[in-house]
Amino acid sequence: MSTMITWNATEAAHPARDAARRSMNAVTAKDKETWLALFAEDAFIEDPVGPSPFDPEGKGHHGKDGISAFWDLAIAQVERFEFHIDDSFAAGDEVANVGTITTFLPGNMRVDTEGVFVYRVNDAGMIRSLRAFWELDRAMGTARQTTP
Q: Residue 110 maps to which CATH number?
């Protein structure tokens, strides 16, 4: 099995970058409770930003209940995640990570999602928002069979 998180970006500590890395670690571990604990009570997720099969109205997933439902809809269905982060730009209370998330789906399918993943934190380092900029058609264009 390959490495779950490949970090080719700066290692410089920043509250939002640190929160993003904790988020990726929880996702690769399939640890929903740890992941949910990273989010502020009033947090929201837009993944991807705008209307999508995960969010038909494009309004995002709000609060712990909405974020938990997003996990069940989008994360729990994936057998394995691999994160490959090529760059990371921190400013203010946010970080924008540039890279690819590879998802391994049931039926030996693999999809590579290239994007920019923006995390904003509050003063306590809790995630206030996660906004993922990626294109569904572009990601689905990478779908392919993998060997079992």
A: 3.10.450.50
Cα diameter, the chain: 45
Q: What is the pTM of this model?
A: 0.95
Report d(CA 77, CA 82) in Å as an integer.
Answer: 14
First to last CA, the chain: 12
What one-character DSSP code corresponds to residue 49?
Answer: S
Report CA 110 to chain centroid distance, whole Å.
Answer: 16
Supply φ then ψ for residue 11, to 5 degrees. Answer: -95, 0
- Which amino acid, 34? T
Q: How many domains would you assign to the chain?
A: 1
- Over residues 110-127, the pLDDT tens digits come to 999 999 999 999 999 999
Which tokens in the block code for residue 72? 């069940």
